[in-house]
Amino acid sequence: MIIGGPGRTGTRIFDRLTAAGRPVRYASRRTGFDWDSATSWPAPLAGVTAAYVCFAPDLAFPGVPEKMRELGRMAAAEGVERLVLLSGRGEEGARASEAALREAGVPTTVLRCSWFQQNFSEHFLAGPVRRGRLRLPAPDVPEAFLDLEDVADAAVVALTSTDPEDRTYELSGPELLTFADAAQVLSVAGGRSVTFEAVDVPTFLADLAADGVPAQEAEPLAGLFTDILDGRNASLAGGIQELLGRPASPLREYARRAAAAGAWA
Q1: Phi, psi at 56, each rounded to 5°
Q2: pLDDT, one tens digit for every residue, the chain (265 residues)
Q3: Is residue 29 packed enough to be buried (19+ CB in 10 Å), middle (13-18) or exposed (0-12)?
């Protein structure tokens, strides 16, 4: 079961499991699963042996630990054998949600992830890259940008391994790059100039509004920048190597793929 629907990670995981011949389905609003109504959760969980949990917009938001605690309890009651939770590196607020999900005793693999490389092409930074200016409310601190393809591969391993693991993995890319460094990588791959500029929160919100990103989505993103991008994640993690037995994919490889697919055309 992919809890959270066909999002950026969920779709990739679903496709991999389907290709491997694994029976898999989504749990989302379209299928009757509503994060705001716990009474809608037991039916989708019936008959499920493993579930991937992705909560949007963020595990660190108020009230989310209570949702995770109830989800864990219901998963245990329905006989779910393992959970895999998408989380974020350096997000102290998310730790409470991780712990709450584990309280009922279902073995839970937590994947704490760095900033996704695909944010530059599939999410809120795609517009700024097209305009050639990454205007972000953060200092130019190093970050280990992580490929979503690696995340999906890691999640599939955690969902299908012989023995469920109650363990936390820290996932990162293979290199530390500042946003100015990332802009240079994107410039080379896309054949256009992309620069980084540190700005205040109102300027960041106005820049995202130009792409139609509503304030209720943009403001939490600004909060993540101001809270997390303070150097706390300026280190490499070995979760991808541990789970997949290979190095994580560098930003330049993602950028070449995205450019070839016309992401910023």
Answers
A1: -115, 145
A2: 999 889 999 999 999 999 999 999 999 999 999 999 999 999 999 999 999 999 988 898 889 999 999 999 999 999 999 999 999 998 888 999 999 999 999 999 999 999 999 999 998 999 999 999 999 998 888 999 999 999 999 999 999 999 999 999 999 999 999 999 999 999 999 999 999 999 999 999 999 898 888 888 788 788 777 778 888 999 999 999 999 999 999 999 999 999 999 999 9
A3: exposed
Q: Is the pTM of this model over 0.90?
A: yes
* Residues ≥6 apart with Cβ < 8 Å to 233: 89, 90, 114, 143, 144, 172
Q: Tokens 């760095």 identify what position?
A: 114
94, burial (CB in 10 Å: exposed 0-12, middle 13-18, buried 19+): buried
Residues 222 and 156 sit within 8 Å (Cβ to Cβ):
no
| Number of Cβ atoms within 10 Å of the Cβ of 225 | 19
Nearest in space to 150 (alpha carbons), one of 114, 190, 97: 114
Cα separations (Å) of 124 from 14, 67, 211?
Answer: 23, 26, 8
Say if CB 68 and CB 97 are below 8 A apart: yes
Q: Which of 110, 123, 113, 118 is nearest to 53 (CA)?
A: 110
Distance between CA atoms of residues 56 and 113, nearest Å: 14
